[in-house]
Amino acid sequence: MPSMIERIKQFARSPQGRRTAEQVRRAAADPRRRAQAQRLLGRLRGGHR
């Protein structure tokens, strides 16, 4: 059975993995999405108590 890292590498090289990576890049370039992600990370880290 392939390791988790190998499975991630296989996915990243697949057409679906490339599409997903492109969607993530586009979302990261959008200032509103970036701010939304920062708020989520802040909550996950316990920033809002």
Brief overview:
Residues 1-34 are annotated as: Disordered. The protein has 49 residues and is an all-alpha fold.
Throw out a few tags for this protein.
mainly alpha; 49 residues; 80% helix; 3 helices; flat
What is the count of DSSP helices, taking H or I runs of 4+ residues?
3
Give the helix level as a range of percent: over 70%
For the largest beta-sheet, the strand count, sense and barrel status come to: none
Radius of gyration (CA) equals: 15 Å
Amount of beta strand: under 5%
Q: How would you describe this protein?
A:
Residues 1-34 are annotated as: Disordered. The structure is a single chain. With 49 residues, the protein is mainly alpha-helical. The chain has a domain at 16-49. The chain is built from 3 helices and no strands. The chain has helices spanning 4-13, 15-29, 31-44. α1 (4-13) crosses α2 (15-29). The chain is flat, with a radius of gyration of 15 Å. The mean pLDDT is 89.
Topology readout:
Elements: H1 4-13, H2 15-29, H3 31-44
Helix pairs in contact: 1-2
